[in-house]
Input
Amino acid sequence: MPLPAEVDYIIVGGGLTGSALASRLSKLLGSKSSILILEAGPDPTSNPYTTTPMAGFALQGSELDWSYVTAPIPSTSERVITLAAGKTLGGGSVLSELSSIYLPSTLMPSGRQTLNECLVIAG
Output
């Protein structure tokens, strides 16, 4: 897609925060302003793991993951740890948020449907 020659707002990062900000700006400013979201990663829609619940963890280490590596950590016998971070439109949520766990409503307080909703209630 060709980039426009001129825009009013540029948002760097197409994760949830960048996308939410673009959406809010768009609603606030209407069609009189233009907004560009820049995202470093590829389009995730062709990868079936991005739309399959519980499959997001298979994306860690893929082209959709920055795979940041720490320096050797003395308290862990000099091991390095790889940290997953989303490199695609949707950001880290593409790697992890599709992993909602559905349990029977009888196990949930107030008839909640997902563990994520219970965690929000629990704080």
